[in-house]
Amino acid sequence: MLCAIYKSAKKAQTYLFVNKRDDFSDVPEGLMATFGTPTLVTLVNLATKDKLAMADIEKVKENLSNKGYYLQLPPPIENLLDQHKAQMQQQNQPK
């Protein structure tokens, strides 16, 4: 299963996987408007891969087969202040 991967011009660390190079016919118009002008990153043969760096390969394959595209969003931003507060609360609780 060959697919093309594009990066977003508008959204950092956002990638769009499609079945055919430069064929965005299955991608909703609203998503394309938000995504911006796609820039080709690479072509990948998913049949020869066991895993991908930032996406579940089985989910990618399923979405490509069912929808014709897969959108990879950036990982959530860690809120270090909230993590610190939670740790402080745990430490201050009576045992």
How does the SSE layout of this entry go?
Blueprint: E1 2-7, E2 15-18, H1 29-35, E3 39-45, H2 57-66, E4 69-72, H3 80-92
Antiparallel strand pairs: 1-2, 1-3, 2-4
Taking all Cα atoms into account, the compactness measure Rg is: 18 Å
**Could you say which structural class the secondary elements and strand pairing correspond to?**
alpha+beta
Give the mean pLDDT.
91
Q: Return the CATH architecture.
A: Roll
Q: Which CATH class applies here?
A: Alpha Beta
Largest sheet: 4 strands, antiparallel
Beta-strand residue fraction? 15-25%
CATH topology: NE1680-like fold
Number of domains: 1
Order of helices and strands: EEHEHEH
Number of E strands: 4
Give the CATH H-level superfamily: YcgL domain
State the helicity in percent bands. Answer: 25-40%
Describe what you observe in this structure.
This protein has a single domain, classed as YcgL domain (NE1680-like fold, Roll). Helix content is 32%, strand content 22%. It has three helices and four strands, in the order ββαβαβα. A four-stranded antiparallel sheet has the order 3-1-2-4. It is elongated, with a radius of gyration of 18 Å. 13% of the residues are buried.
Quick structural overview:
With 95 residues, the chain is of the alpha+beta class. Helix content is 32%, strand content 22%. It contains 3 helices and 4 strands.
Which features does this protein show?
single chain; 95 residues; alpha+beta; NE1680-like fold; elongated
